[in-house]
Each structure stands twice: as C-alpha cells, then as structure tokens.
Amino acid sequence: MKRKLLGIIDATSYQEDLEDLLIHRSLAALPFSGRYRVIDFVLSSMVNSGIRSVAIFPKMQYRSLMDHLGSGKNWDLNRKRDGLFFFPSPIVDNHENRIGSFDLFAANMDYFYRSTQEYAIISNCYTIFNMDFKPLLESHIHSECDITEVHLKDGGSMELYLVKTSFLIELIKSRHLTGYTCMRDVVRDPQSYYQVCHYLYDGFSVMIDSIQTYFQTSMNLLQPEVWKKLFLKEQPILTKVKDEPPTKYIKGSSVKNSMIANGCQICGTVENSIIARGVIIGKGAVVRNSIIMQKCVIEEDCYLDSVIADKDVKVEAGVHLSGTVQAPLVVRKGTKQGALMNS
After folding, report:
1. CATH, range 5-230
2. Contact 321, 303 (CB under 8 A)
3. What pLDDT, on a 0 to 100 scale, did the predictor assign at position 96?
4. Which of 44, 46, 87, 230 has its CA 20 to 30 A from that of 78?
5. Pairing of strands 248-249, 5-11
6. Long-range contacts: 268-271, Cβ < 8 Å, 24+?
7. Rounded to whole angstroms, how far apart are CA atoms 170 and 156?
8. Per-domain boundaries in the chain
9. Within a 13 Å sphere around the CA of 225, how many CA atoms are in the beta-carbon half?
10. What CATH architecture applies to the domain 248-337?
C-alpha cells in the first residue's frame, strides 16, 4: 500500500433485538457460520488489506471477545511493533451518562498520537463482509475528501469510514464543542462543512442487528452461490484455531445441505443447518433449518426445526422444539430443555 492504514473497530454496539444471544457476550463475539465470530470478518478484511495495527474498543461483556482474540496470533497481529490493541471502556455507561465511541477513543489518545499510519479506517463490529480496503484508500486519496463513507449498491451506509488519522484526532479533541459522539454524527450532520465522499461496495454485506437477520443470513450461506461471495480464496476469513478431531458420522446418520464443524458426533439427521464445533446429535434426532452452537448436546429422538441453540445447550431425549423462519426459537446459552419442561 502506498500509504499505511490504521484499523479501528468500534465494538461498543448493542442490539436489543439480539438480547437472547448477548447475555454472556458482546455483539462482536457472537458466533457465526459454525466456527467464526462476527468480528472475524472486519478484522480479516483489515489484515488481508495489509493493515498491521488494529485497535478494538469494546464497552461491555467483553471477556468472551478477549478470549477469542487472544494476542492476535491467528490474524498475524502478535507483533513487536503495532499489532492488536484492546481498549476496554474505562467509563461507566448508564442512563445518565451515555458515551459514544469518540469518548472511548479520547480515553486512549496515546494510541492515536503514537501511530505512524497516515490514514485510519473506522468500522463497526457487526457487519458480515469481506472487503479489500486498498482500492478504498486509493479512492479517498484521489478524491481529497475529508471523509469517505462506504455505501452499498442500494445506497445504504455500511458505517465504514476512512479519514486521515490527524483529522480523526481533531474530531476526537473537539467532540465537546461540536457535539459529535461518533463518525456517524459527523457525516449525518447537515450543518457540517466537512467534505464527505461515498465509495460504492458491491460485494456481500449484511449488518447483524436482529435475531431474524442473524438467522436468515446464516441460512442463506448454505446456498453455494451466496457462500462463494463471502468466503474468497484470495481473502480468507481468519479465526481462532482450535485443535479438534474430525467430525464422526455414525452409521445410519444423514446430513444434507449443512455446515458441520470439527469435533462433532452425528448419529441422527441434520438438514439445512449449521452445526458448530463439538456438537453431539443423538440417534434418531432430527435437526432441520437450525443453528446449533458449540458443545450442544441433542439427545436421542429429539426434533428441532428453526431453532438457534446457543453454546452448551442440552436438549434431552424426545423433546420437540420448533420456531419459524421469521421467528426462530432461541434457546439461551447453557440451558437445559427437558421433556417435563415441554409437556
């Protein structure tokens, strides 16, 4: 890259419509597509674009996110210079004291002052996409705009912004005078005198902001033509590596149009579903149109249709659970679904 980029991921977002899946984790750490987390997509896009310094700013429930990211080794960000930086919020956020991302940036100004990268890209943590940022940077430099905002083909914003690092520092320092709390405030202000340009992105992009969007996006990836738009050979999606054995398919089991991660044991029937690592599907059990997260146990003769089972869920023998495509049934992390509970 002719000019170096600084990567900034705003992981402060909380979507109320995803509450059942965010009780024990931040939105950035939400499992997706069997073996990934939502943040893997923007983080991989940054690394694949040559970015070697990435700062993540979470606000709450970030233990799971820290465990997933670790030192950044899986993204080649465990470096002596630059690398992965994690800045949890030092500010209490409550009804009387709502904070924006600029406040979190301001609490860690040394990071921005010490950065040698001339430009910075600021992104949310909950968009599923796979983008090369190099053409975006070239477009921004050529346009000489103050801010370049990435838009989709339909005109919607991806909440992805490219600016000079020095300009970002000025926005942070002047936030109390301007009233801007984040980049979105800057570009949406009709009175702003900053020049904002739009960059059109025509690749795969979905914001995970509700249970329905999360479920439908996951199901769409079971279509090969959709999957190929997101998972590109030249731009791999990186994630935390776990050493687990291959999945074991027991005689009599049946799997159709599904994603099955490593370490599973499949004894029953799985159709049109996403099964994460270490899941057990018992004999005679049927799982259709569902998302089963890590280390769940679906015992014998169960029937699940349009269900999202969070991590460590146990569904006891003979239980039937059903939702709909528009309103999938969510089973919260670590809970047990027993026959007596459903009678």
Report:
1. 3.90.550.10
2. yes
3. 42
4. 230
5. unpaired
6. 268/298, 268/300, 268/302
7. 27
8. 5-230, 248-337
9. 0
10. 3 Solenoid (2.160)
